[in-house]
Every structure is written in structure tokens, then in C-alpha cells.
Amino acid sequence: MNRNGMEEPLTLELRPYEATDLAEICSLFYETVHTVNARDYTAEQLMVWAPREPDEQRWHRSLLAHRAYVARAEGILVGFGDIADDGYLDRLYVHKDYQRRGIATALCRVLESCVEAPRLTVHASITARAFFERRGYTVVSRQEVVLHGVSLTNFAMEKLRRLP
């Protein structure tokens, strides 16, 4: 923090996903879900959403199938996200220690600019709903997703945009 008590601005490096990012992505995902999302979901819900041992090859294939970007700052991976060509924003996560520093906004801006879909969609967690609303997404429906017999609430959201 600077002498005014404000967070120092981050110098972000945004670049496409590489296979060498995978271990850090999986770790960031687990830690972020289990800390940041803990205020909105139970421990049981968090465990089915983000198990300690993810299927890394499945994650790798999925990230390669989409336009995936990572954000690095201060020598570490501080965020990642990916979007499909049809405009479905699949994942957007920021390191638990770097929340509210503009990382999600920067990643989202890059991801949204990667696709030419007139309609962007996301399944936002309770925690992320307000972020997406600030970016112009609106709730289409509240959903109950069942993973391994455990129900989790999220929101199907969309953002319509005019393209040139």
C-alpha cells in the first residue's frame, strides 16, 4: 500500500494461456473458490465445485478449446479466464489475494474482444453476479446446478451488444 492507504497499481501482463500455466491455474481456482466464494456457498458446495485434485488434462483440453487468457503480476499468475467462440464466458477467476484490483475487468475486456458474438453469456456464481451486472450483463434466470448430488445456485446472464 502507498502512504495514502491505497493499493499500489498493478502492472498486469495479459497473454494467451500456455500449458505451463496449468498447475498455477488449478491452484488459483481451488484457493479462490474456497476463500472468496465461501461467503456465499457451504463447505460441501465448495468441495464439489472445486475439488482439491482437479482433472488437469480435462482443464487443459477445455482451455485450449476456448480463447483463454492469463494475467500475471508481481511474478505470479493473478487471474485467468476463457471464452468460447459463441460468446459463452466459461471461467473468470482472480487470485484470492488480488481481488478488487481491476484484474477481472482487464481479463473480461480482453475475452469479450476476442469474439464477435452479438450475445455474450455467463453462468455467474452468487459471488460474481454483481461484477457481471456492472459490466452490463443481465440475469436471464436463477439456476440450481447439481454436482455429485449437491445443489449450487448460479445465474444465467447475458449481455447483448451491437457489432460493426
Broad structural category: alpha+beta
* Span between termini: 42 Å
Topology as a string of helices (H) and strands (E): EHHHEEEHEHEE
Q: Could you describe the largest sheet, including whether it forms a barrel?
A: 7 strands, mixed
Helix percent reads 25-40%
Assembly state (oligomeric): single chain
The low-pLDDT segments are none
**Biggest sheet: strand arrangement:** 1-2-3-4-5-7-6
- Rg over CA atoms, rounded to whole Å, is 16 Å
Count of DSSP H/I helices:
5
Average pLDDT taken over every residue: 93
What attributes characterize this protein structure?
164 residues, alpha+beta, seven-stranded mixed β-sheet, 7 strands, 30% helix, globular
Describe what you observe in this structure.
- The protein is of the alpha+beta class.
- It is 30% helix and 33% strand.
- It has five helices and seven strands, in the order E-H-H-H-E-E-E-H-E-H-E-E.
- The chain has helices at residues 22-36, 43-49, 56-65, 103-114, 129-134, and strands at 13-16, 67-73, 76-83, 88-94, 119-125, 138-147, 150-160.
- The chain has a seven-stranded mixed beta sheet with strand order 1-2-3-4-5-7-6, sandwiched between helices.
- It is globular and about 45 Å long.
Brief synopsis:
This protein is of the alpha+beta class and 164 residues long.
Question: Helices, strands, pairings?
Answer:
Layout: E1 13-16, H1 22-36, H2 43-49, H3 56-65, E2 67-73, E3 76-83, E4 88-94, H4 103-114, E5 119-125, H5 129-134, E6 138-147, E7 150-160
Parallel strand pairs: 4-5
Antiparallel strand pairs: 1-2, 2-3, 3-4, 5-7, 6-7
